[in-house]
Amino acid sequence: MGKLKTGFPDDFLWGGAIACSQADGAWNEDGKGKSTQDCRWLDGSWTHDQIEEKHQNNPFSKAEFEAALLDDGTEYYPLRRGNDFYHHWREDLDLFAQMGLKLFRTSICWSRIFPNGDDAEPNPAGIAWYRELFAACHECGIKTFVTMLHYDIPVNLVTKYGGWKNRKTIEFFTRYVETIVEELGDLVDFWLPFNEFNAGRFAPWDGVCLIADEEGDNLDQQIFQCLHHQFVANARAIQIVHEKCPETPVGGMIARFCTYPATCRPEDNMQALHDDQYANWFYTDVMARGAYPAYMDRYFDKLGIEIQMEEGDEELIAANTVDFLSFSYYFSQVATADQGWEKTAGNLVMANKNPYLESTEWGWQIDPLGLRVTLNQMYDRYGLPLYIAENGLGTADVLEADGSVHDPYRIDYLRKHIDCMREAVIDGVDVRGYMIWGFLDLVSCGPLTMSKRYGVIYVDLDNSGKGSAKRYCKDSYYWYRSCIASNGADLG
Ligand code: BG6
Hints:
Layout: E1 13-17, H1 20-23, H2 48-57, H3 62-70, H4 78-81, H5 85-98, E2 103-107, H6 110-113, H7 124-139, E3 143-149, H8 155-161, H9 168-184, E4 190-194, H10 199-202, H11 204-208, H12 212-215, H13 219-244, E5 251-255, E6 258-261, H14 266-289, H15 295-303, H16 313-319, E7 324-328, E8 332-335, E9 343-345, E10 350-352, H17 368-382, E11 386-391, H18 408-427, E12 431-437, E13 457-459, E14 471-473, H19 475-485
Parallel strand pairs: 1-2, 1-12, 2-3, 3-4, 5-7, 6-8, 7-11, 11-12
Antiparallel strand pairs: 9-10, 13-14
6-O-phosphono-beta-D-glucopyranose binds at residues 19, 22, 195-196, 255, 328, 347-348, 390, 394, 437, 444-446, 452.
């Protein structure tokens, strides 16, 4: 028997997370090529409702893609601007260091390293920038948790090869991984090949760069074929890290949809099992157990999906499993065998609404206890170390005239989630790190706005990119500083 834990381990990693396409900006500077995320557009003058209508009901279309390929401006392309981290990173890092941050998660932009994805040589300026950033993190005592691909692939790989539909993309990704692991591996503490592996199923453009209206009835087939190619690419990435940096852990990540049966009716429970398998477990089972789970056969059969595998794929996936698992956690949802259950928005999906929970302004249901449930479920199943790669609250914060930002709602949200995470530690779960998402305000991924703010640091930019880009510490910044200093004992 082990000894009952009473709180967070001494070396617990308190972190913050961003992603290059939502933060960096500088989309065509220093040799960076256009990426798939540089193509998503928004009219920054729209109202909240207009933006939500577009986001919820109009997935990225072929016409939008074609227009974006021809347009090299930034006016309608918020992800080309980000929060200008590329030019502000030194002052941002100072703020991170002053609060005692222990872990910084960001992603490397593939098109900053290989502007077209298939270039003969990498872009030295791209490598130099990441070396400077990661070395500076280490100088401040901050460990680096680095995502190799957070949705943005060089657009040329899509127009020329069809993106993840084509196995050639596995080769290009492998070369990209070899390059960044060789060039930056000494400065990276944790590698994460793919952000939210299950995103491809729920947000095809983000996850697997597929345009829904182009694929038509073939969409499901294409999604799972692309995902298979990503599983192979993921296994190659793990193999490369294990060979070149054997001391550095390499992990997997999903957007975790914590799922409760609507009632104790057996039918609802069965539905909850299936929802969990198809939306969550499939992805972590492949990455952690190294094989497609048997329950997917029936699912694929129902959807008419036939995955083309090549000889050696299954062996590669089996031989290269993850060292840890991580996940984003924002909400929970209800599983029911009934039709017509009330829906609400959730990260990447529309979810069945839980009458016991409150929602954010964007409809996502707030469920701290679901985080404890999730941590227990994942640890029970895999016994691997866990990291919460993203958690946080998106709200419309207000910058006061004196430069303060009062966000008691965010403090309340974080406090409750961290409390439940502590309970999970006492339950015996090996959770080693926690990263607040959108640590400094950035362009949201779904609605593409600055006004949905997650940060503990405010960035003075609006949905049209107007503003000073100055950074201001919110009340939650000071609160998190105390939380870190007390290793999670002082939650205010
Ligand atoms: C996760 C993504 O799905 O959710 C992030 O990894 C994203 O990129 C985050 O920003 C929050 O979603 P949104 O749409 O509110 O930005």
